[in-house]
Amino acid sequence: MNLNYKVIKKSSECSARLGEFETIYGISKTPMFMPVGTQATVKNLSPEDIISTKSDVILSNTYHLWLRPGEDIVDMHGGLHNFMNYKNGPILTDCGGFQVFSLANPKDISEEGVKFKSHINGESLFLTPEESIRVQNKLGADIIMSFDECPYYPCTFKYMENSIERTLRWAKRCKETHSKSSTQALFGIVQGGEFPELRKKSAIETVALNFDGYSIGGVSVGEDNETKYKMIDYAIPYLPEDKIRYLMGVGDPIDLIEGVIRGVDIFDCVLPTRLARHNNAFTKYGKINLRNKKYMDDLSPLDNECDCYTCKNYTKSYIRHLIVSQEMLASRLLSIHNIRFLTSLMEEIRLAIKNDNLLEFRDNYISKYKK
RNA sequence: GCCUGAUUAGCUCAGUGGUAGAGCAAACGGCUGUUAACCGUUGGGUCGGAGGUUCGAGUCCUUUAUCAGGCG
Question: Which of A124, A202, A247, A338 could form a disulfide with A264 if both were Cys (CB 3.0 to 4.6 A apart)?
Fold first, then answer.
């Protein structure tokens, strides 16, 4: 499916671009942050909560839904949107490639596919590019991902070279398997680690397969910041101007800004929701841990300028009380705030691109934000 | 009044002669395409009191206090 991605404005000072694309849910503006709902739910949040965060696209995961409840059950509901009652915006499914990184052993990866042991019951599983696409076709997300290997970091040049070549062959198989190209956009994924020539090769050859958009994967897997930004720089020049660029798994506020400056359009990350469950809130001055005793009598909201439901209605003191009392509302309120914090940051970024002052915005932001 | 049992970290409890421990709680840290409401670090004890035996006692003995049962 053609998302009709359009560049509205290119920054005059960096590679950032303001853009939009189209689905049956309407126009989506980029740069954008997408919250993650692995198991067809953004953990702790109802669809109404998600909408209140002004999110647009949300993510779900092929591997997890394949295992449970199974793609047929989702299909019986008429697809993911109906299954999880998210009607506000598009859904993107990740392909299961990250689970190759987090759950499978390198020795279990073959040309044909990846051998897994189910994290639920230990059952032996085999995921192939064809199976990933077949499952994603049934899940019915608006944007689906080509099945890739997300290699361990660090890995050798030789391992990475073999890996990207195999991922390219998998990408071709994914394209050939994709049976719903009229309703689902299929993105290819660029790998190559920290090796410039491999990022270049992976990008050029993935683009040659002509996907509906392109992801940069294998980032935020343990590398330092400098390396992380280089990985983006090595790939971006070879990605077409007229297609969406998606940096997978990145969601730290500074990383979002740096990614946009380098030409990235969309991001996803578990960080806002995971940090929320672990009692942390994003603020303009860095993240804070609400379990800390100093918030016991703090009557201020998480962030004075934030317009989220949580900040409009609750004090830090109350949220700390919920955390100490192990009440589940704490992680819900923090999830709402953290996601809204990032969608709000993306609004500011879009405005800065429009005003051609994104680099100044970045410098001001970093000077306040303690990473 | 007599008999038994208990008393060790804030709490619940291990530790039966050889350098005082765990879980929880507390304080704090980490988290980047979710195997994570998770993981980690740190602080915290005259072992109820007083005597005694012993090279050495949380541990054995005497005594005492408190608590819980049982019998009168």
Answer: A247
Give the three-class secondary structure for A213: strand
Q: Break chain A down into helix, strand, coil percent, rounded to 5.
A: 45, 15, 40
Q: Which two tokens stand for residue A232?
A: 């983006």
CA A220/CA A223 separation, integer angstroms: 6
Letter for the amino acid at A195? F
Q: Which of A148, A252, A268, A303 is catalytic?
A: A268
Eight-class DSSP state of A70 = -
Known catalytic membership, residue A268: yes
Provide the positions of strand B that have an atom within 7 A of a protein CB.
26-39
Query: Which tens digits make up the pLDDT trace of A57-108?
Result: 999 999 999 999 999 999 999 999 999 999 999 999 999 999 988 988 888 9
CA A326 to C1' B15 (Å) is 32
Q: Is A72 a catalytic residue?
A: no
The one-letter amino acid code at A310 reads T
Maximum pairwise Cα distance, chain A: 60
Q: What is the DSSP letter of A62?
A: H
- Assigned token pair, A59: 């993510």
User: Which is nearest to A247 in space by CA: A8, A255, A238?
Assistant: A255
Own/partner contacts of A117-122, CB < 8 Å, gap of 24 or more, are A118/A67, A120/A67, A120/A68
